[in-house]
Amino acid sequence: MATIAQSPAGTHQWSRSPSPHEALEAHYAANPDTRPPHPHKWDTSRSDIYFENRWEPIFKEMRAAGPVHYIPESPFGPYWSVVGHKAVQHTEALPEIFSSSWEYGGITILDDLPDIPEEERMRLPMFIAMDRPKHTGQRKTVAPAFTPAEMKRLEDDIRQRTGETLDALPRGEVFDWVNTVSIPLTTGMLAILFDFPWEDRDLLTHWSDWAGDTELATVRALDETRRGMLHEMAAYFQLLWAERAQKGEAPDLISRMIHSPAMNQMEPQEFMGNLVLLIVGGNDTTRNTMSGIVHAFDRFPDQRKLFEEDASLIPNAVQECIRYQTPLKHMRRTATQDTELFGQNIAAGDKVLLWYNSANRDESVFEDAEKLDIRRENARRHLAFGYGIHRCVGARLAELQLRVLLEEMHKRRLRVHVAGDVQRVRANFVEGFRKLEVEVTEF
């Protein structure tokens, strides 16, 4: 692993290890018998159905049979799948009964593996994985960074960086939209939010990839590498924390934590957990929707034509693209008591998975839900940002970045064609693209 020097800004030696996707594929190639088994036909924790983009019919079959289903076997243990829009929303609205707390299991399908020694367990408290009242105080610390006034302050910079990125795109050749557009724009935004050393901003993407992959945590052979990544991230941010602690209040997220009674005394694991939340939440989600937009427009050329003909559709197109892409597939809750959920008896301690990707395809709410429709009247009813007290605190910023991207594409009459390899992320948590080869023309 890399060693960080005393000053974090561009002075450490960074030896780039493989991406988590490369590491996971290499592990499975060398150890094919370790791929997790999935004996239940409705076990949607399996990453291959997302990598191969064949998840929609499975969830459609489940929704037709009911909004809540019990999955008795999976590599992550038994769990309940909540697949209907109304049922997901209802569950989210009952945080006292369906807990998000890391103490019960947190917000992903993962549980502690039984063979991991206590001292090696990576429990990462973060405010999205907390219940009230602690959740409330920490969320209030971060929320001012995403107010309408802050969005107005940030918009000019976002627009300038977006325009420069689009103007630099190669013409007449195929290139990877993910690495050329989606990653630079979202990584740059994260660096601004943290006031992170600009020359080191690529580290944010690398850490986000390692922290946000749930399947990695089930592969013991990669434990040491993953822990090393997270500890390195924490060490870097601790240096930034020490540096900012000597200064006055500022709008960046680290300074907001330092000057917050709810967050300035965090334990190391909690500090690391909140960093993971803010980095993955601010990076993976927007980044993958930026790729999802151009992929969806290529898949539905009639909708791309509507976008090209009428820029006034852009705000609603952003909501529809977020619904269609649904960048986070699931959130997990744990029942704190015996309860009933849409005719199913849930026992205290049961794991409950809220499948946002399925809720956003619910035909009872969204007509022709599997199609992109940028004029969809109820596109804002999507649950991609969650619902209730845990609704995504950075939703406004994601919407702003996506709106500006579409506006700047329209201003330049930029049309993006899928023209080569499309590789999706092999994961059951983040919905995204590893590679999206495209070519740009003008309309």
From TrEMBL:
Keywords: Heme, Iron, Metal-binding, Monooxygenase, Oxidoreductase. InterPro entries: Cyt_P450, Cyt_P450_B, Cyt_P450_CS, Cyt_P450_sf. Residues 1-21 are annotated as: Disordered. It comes from the Bacteria. Residues 1-18 have a biased composition (Polar residues). The keyword Metal-binding applies. PROSITE patterns: CYTOCHROME_P450. The keyword DNA-binding does not apply. PANTHER family: CYTOCHROME P450 YJIB-RELATED, P450, PUTATIVE (EUROFUNG)-RELATED. Belongs to the cytochrome P450 family. This is Cytochrome P450. It comes from Alteriqipengyuania abyssalis.
